[in-house]
From TrEMBL:
Its cofactor is (R)-lipoate. This is Dihydrolipoyllysine-residue succinyltransferase component of 2-oxoglutarate dehydrogenase complex. It catalyses: N(6)-[(R)-dihydrolipoyl]-L-lysyl-[protein] + succinyl-CoA = N(6)-[(R)-S(8)-succinyldihydrolipoyl]-L-lysyl-[protein] + CoA. Belongs to the 2-oxoacid dehydrogenase family. Pathway: Amino-acid degradation; L-lysine degradation via saccharopine pathway; glutaryl-CoA from L-lysine: step 6/6. Residues 214-251 form the Peripheral subunit-binding (PSBD) domain. InterPro entries: 2-oxoA_DH_lipoyl-BS (IPR003016), 2-oxoacid_dehydrogenase (IPR050537), 2-oxoacid_DH_actylTfrase (IPR001078), Biotin_lipoyl (IPR000089), CAT-like_dom_sf (IPR023213), E3-bd_dom_sf (IPR036625), PSBD (IPR004167), Single_hybrid_motif (IPR011053). Residues 183-213, 255-268 have a biased composition (Low complexity).
Length: 509
């Protein structure tokens, strides 16, 4: 007896959905209420559970197809009869099918770990092992990349890798099988790795094209009406699917004009000479780099971004460091750097100009009565912004310790979601790379970011005399929708005053 799997009711205003992905394939055993397929509408994502236990007998719609409510998705052959009915088809393979569950029962599944509440998927990076390799417990198997950070997946047990289920470049969700390890050391199940390598093949091209999902039905209709193509709209749905809201946002931000420039760029590659093209190297952007690009461009498109500049004489801070650096390091176990002074100066200024520490939420302004300062850190995988929480309540020594700790975690790829969320203001130090002047881009939804730059000796007029002083240009980029020019300039002047007269930090002036 077969049980039908049909599209459930999705809501009063939703009449159709897109098949996002099947969790099972024909012939797989399923339990009642176990998720079988994921449907995506222009509003929500819905998992369809198995109406009965048995074997998935057939799938009648493929991933990417659009189906209406009530449409047939597939059928389940119920009970033990499902397995029995498949056996007579070929007598010889029957023992193999009976042995497979026993072999799998001994295998240890390695699945995609959870990377935090706001992270719903990761991209499989380079595998450190291959099928047949012997691994020890805690050996690194593969690196996963999310839109926030890279994460290494260790081996839970010692044994032999007998199956790799997710290829490099594939997009996986938490709980998805990555590989299997035979703790007995037997490589007998390695023959199962052949289908495993071909199974993720459909997702590989999807990753290279940016998304494997067609636009949601309502989004596709709106895109057609406004002469927009899928590459002109950034999708926010799962696996980059374009939703109706994305199209509305794209139209509001002038996507048509912006995209015409973008679409003309590939056309410019036509005249590239063959001898030059063979010397080029095309490398797919990592998940982290894609997110950095998208967030920075979104910040430019959304905020009314403006930058104001000033310069600060770093002499007083440098003299203070020179005088107390040895004593400071001996007492606190950390070197006295510039970031402690800058972070402290910023928190003082934020208390006086709260708009720079606020954010816009729809038609509301949210003022933050705390200072979580993000510190931009460059790594070999891209820019990350770990957050120093409650920096306004910390001493300079505590700030230096926390920045040092976060910096090490960033370079080692050990930053967690809790380390990079919740920031209210950001400091970016391009001076460590030699930058003399730049205009930093906002770290949305924050309303302000301070750019530090290279300290360079310049002739300055002081009390009517020309003297050589160690000067640094400061840049404050801010969202003009919420921060007025007077507030931005005052903020930057307060930072300058605190650095040129560090006693202000001690006296809270």
């Amino acid at each position: 007896m077969a049980t039908e799997i049909r599209v459930p009711t999705l809501g009063e205003s939703v009449s159709e959905a897109t098949i996002a992905q099947w969790f099972k394939k024909p012939g797989d055993a399923v339990n009642q209420d176990e998720p079988l397929v994921e449907l995506e509408t222009d509003k929500v994502t819905v998992e369809v559970p198995a109406p009965a236990a048995g074997t998935l007998e057939s799938i009648v719609v493929n991933e990417g197809d659009t189906v209406e409510v009530g449409a047939l998705l597939g059928q389940i052959a119920e009970g033990a009869g499902a397995g029995a009915s498949a056996a007579p088809a070929a007598a010889a393979p029957a023992p193999a099918k009976q042995e497979a569950p026993a072999a799998k029962a001994e295998l240890v599944d390695v699945v995609t770990p959870s990377a935090g509440e706001s992270v719903t998927e990761a991209e499989v990076g380079e595998w450190s092992v291959k099928v047949g390799d012997v691994v020890k417990a805690d050996d690194t198997l593969v690196e996963l990349e999310t839109d926030k950070a890279a994460q290494e997946v260790p081996a839970p047990v010692a044994g032999t890798v007998v199956k790799i289920a997710a290829e490099t470049g594939a997009t996986v969700e938490p709980g998805v099988l990555l590989c299997q390890i035979d703790p007995s050391g037997s490589a007998a199940p390695a023959t199962e790795s052949a289908p495993a390598t071909t199974a993720p093949a459909p997702s590989a091209p999807a990753a290279s094209t940016g998304t494997s999902m067609p636009p949601a039905p309502s989004a596709a209709k709106m895109m057609s009406e406004n002469n927009l193509s899928s590459d002109q709209v950034a999708g926010s749905g799962k696996r980059g699917q374009v939703l109706k809201e994305d199209v509305i946002n794209a139209i509001a931000s002038g996507a048509t004009a912006a995209s015409s420039t973008q679409t003309s760029a590939p056309a410019a590659r036509g005249p590239v000479a063959a001898e030059d093209e063979v010397r080029e190297e095309r490398v797919r952007m990592t998940k982290l780099r894609q997110t950095i690009a998208r967030r920075l461009k979104d910040a430019q498109n959304t905020a009314a971004m403006l930058t104001t500049y000033n310069e600060v004489d770093m002499g007083p801070v440098m003299e203070l460091r020179k005088q107390y650096k040895d004593l400071f390091e001996k007492k606190h176990g950390v070197k006295l750097g510039f970031m402690g002074f800058f972070t402290k100066a910023v928190t003082h200024a934020l208390k006086e100009i709260p708009a720079v520490n606020a954010e816009i939420d729809g038609t509301d302004i949210i003022y933050k009565n705390f200072c979580h300062v993000g510190v931009a850190v460059g790594t070999d995988k891209g820019l990350v912004v770990p957050v120093v929480r409650d920096a306004d309540e910390m001493s300079i020594a505590e700030i230096e310790k926390e920045i040092g700790n976060l910096g090490r975690k960033a370079r080692d790829g050990k930053l967690g979601m809790a380390d990079m969320t919740g920031g209210t203001f950001t400091i970016s130090n391009g001076g460590v790379y030699g930058s003399l002047m730049s205009s930093p881009i906002l770290n949305a939804p924050q309303s302000g970011i301070l750019g530090m730059h290279k300290i360079q000796e310049r002739p300055m007029a002081v009390n009517g005399q020309v003297v050589i002083r160690p000067m640094m240009y400061l840049a404050l980029s801010y969202d003009h929708r919420i921060v007025d020019g007077k507030e931005a300039v005052t903020f930057l002047v307060r930072v300058k005053e605190s650095l040129e007269d560090p006693q202000r930090l001690v006296l809270d002036l």
